[in-house]
């Protein structure tokens, strides 16, 4: 039984706007909104600025609502992990019911607004992304399998599809490749993090790969997943869907990612307790996604 969140909530410390903002995971939301915006800007048709703003707002609301529901469901796990125990629910600043209502309200509002203001397809993909993150990843996979990140990675890969669909009303090959890129990027990104916070996941009983299979297997998997990720990153240029700006940027960015992933894969367990290679890969993986999607937009607008 999840005793920690219940016992802390008995303190009845009132939540303020900062706690509700924290429920939306603003750091994660920035990446979600950015990739969604880039998917929209890379589309071959332009969307009215008001509709574009509305679509991005809906993506942000949907991501925030899903994040709130994730924290509502995982309050017991968050209370056991050093890096998450200060969140509003395990920190005793909010009741779980408030988080549930906030998450459901944001999620439903985002889909309804997207449907009526933008189009049905973007609303449908947004719905799928919310349900996938909350039901498939959070409720079904997270506590059951070390493949949680692999299968659950699709949850964060939807925004480029949503942005593209909002602008065009359809989905084509390029946004599908962007989906594949983020999907394949997720395992090396999260496993790099999991390697240097392994004890946190172990204490919470979350079957992340380093906890279940060990560090050696995790390093190998990081290297193996980086290969198809790089292929997905280069594919838009190789298939003639983008121009030279994206092509050159993709070669450079993927080259750095590959080198950092190789350093993690080849490092021997216990060789360096500071986990510097893993931390470098994790930090670069975030910057990588911002830069490669930024290059996509630059390629579309500069060479248009």
From TrEMBL:
This protein's membrane topology, according to the annotation, is: Multi-pass membrane protein
Which cellular component, as a GO term, is one annotated location?
A: plasma membrane
Pfam families reported in the protein's UniProt record: UbiA
Does Membrane show up as a keyword for this record?
yes
Q: Which residues cross the membrane?
A: 27-44, 50-73, 123-141, 148-167, 173-197, 222-239, 245-266, 281-303
Tell me the keywords, alphabetical order.
Cell membrane, Heme biosynthesis, Membrane, Transferase, Transmembrane, Transmembrane helix
Localization recorded for this chain is: Cell membrane
**EC top class named in words:** transferase
In alphabetical order, the GO MF annotations are:
protoheme IX farnesyltransferase activity
Q: Where is the signal peptide?
A: none
Q: Which Enzyme Commission number(s) are listed?
A: 2.5.1.141
Instruction: Please give the pathway this protein is involved in.
Output: Porphyrin-containing compound metabolism; heme O biosynthesis; heme O from protoheme: step 1/1
Q: Name one GO biological process term.
A: heme O biosynthetic process
InterPro entries cross-referenced by the UniProt entry: Protohaem_IX_farnesylTrfase, UbiA_prenyltransferase, UbiA_prenylTrfase_CS, UbiA_sf
Name the catalysed reactions.
heme b + (2E,6E)-farnesyl diphosphate + H2O = Fe(II)-heme o + diphosphate
Task performed by this protein: Converts heme B (protoheme IX) to heme O by substitution of the vinyl group on carbon 2 of heme B porphyrin ring with a hydroxyethyl farnesyl side group.
Its UniProt miscellaneous note says: Carbon 2 of the heme B porphyrin ring is defined according to the Fischer nomenclature.
| Similarity-based family | Belongs to the UbiA prenyltransferase family. Protoheme IX farnesyltransferase subfamily.
Q: Please name the NCBIfam families in this protein's record.
A: cyoE_ctaB (TIGR01473), PRK04375.1-2 (NF003349)
The protein's name: Protoheme IX farnesyltransferase
**Can you name the source organism?**
Stakelama tenebrarum
- Protein's gene: ctaB
